[in-house]
Write a structure and sequence with these properties.
With 209 residues, this protein is an all-alpha fold. It has one domain: Methane Monooxygenase Hydroxylase, Chain G, domain 1. The protein is built from 7 helices and no strands. The protein has helices at 4-7, 13-37, 42-68, 76-103, 113-132, 139-168, 174-208. Helix 3 runs antiparallel to helix 4. The longest helix has 35 residues, at 174-208. It is globular, with a radius of gyration of 18 Å. It starts with a helix and ends with a helix.
């Protein structure tokens, strides 16, 4: 079986597009983390929407290129699966941003730093894994990135249970508790989307190693 290093040439169009999609996905999460710190910062929200549109356009380019291209470095379904995974990350970030925007004073004073750290780690790992596809020389390095994603996803699940326990114990009034729970769940979804995309990358690597 061919090694994955041979699948992507230096100027491979699909690798370039996938890396661009990963870059915009990473930027979307970075921006939503900034928005978590300052939910009323309209400029950050606008920047996030712009980044999301850029990623959407890249996803459409990938689909169009697949229609026109008969021979691809990776299997077509793998390219589609990875593009779809990368597309879902900024989509989840945008939904979180929208919820933060309408949550208003209900999220004032809530510490989201732990979730922000997890989201940052998750999207950093995905970003590096996609870039690593072009120059994969150390399989252990790729596995390390994926292991990091698995750990973050597990930590996010455990932390979510702790947060829900606090909410259900009557720490906040019912309306505020409902709003905070929704925000928590959307933050966890960003991590989940990164985890899913990392799994797609690993499946591609293992299939072509």
């Amino acid at each position: 079986m061919f090694s994955i290093q041979k699948l992507f040439s230096k100027g491979d169009r699909f690798q370039e597009l996938l890396e661009a999609a990963a870059e915009e996905s990473h930027e979307s999460v970075r921006l939503v983390i900034e928005l978590m710190k300052s939910p009323r910062n309209t400029q950050t929200y606008d920047d996030l929407i712009l980044s999301r549109r850029k990623e959407k356009k890249i996803s459409e380019q990938i689909s169009n290129e697949l229609v026109k291209t008969f021979i691809t470095g990776l299997e077509r379904e793998d390219i589609e699966a990875l593009a779809r995974g990368l597309f879902r990350i900024p989509k989840a970030a945008e939904k979180l941003a929208e919820r933060l925007k309408i949550a208003g004073h209900h999220v004032d004073g809530i510490d989201f730093s732990k979730q922000a750290e997890m989201m940052a780690k998750a999207t950093d790992a995905v970003h590096e894994m996609v870039k690593q596809l072009r120059r994969l020389e150390d399989m252990e390095k790729m596995k390390a990135f994926n292991d990091r994603l698995q750990l973050v996803e597990t930590e996010a699940d455990k932390y979510m249970m702790e947060l829900l326990r606090d909410l259900y114990n009557g720490k906040y009034d019912p309306l505020r508790a409902m709003v905070i729970r929704d925000v928590y769940e959307l933050m966890e979804k960003v991590v989940d989307r990164c985890h899913d995309t990392g799994n797609v990358v690993m499946q591609i690597v293992l299939k072509n190693s």
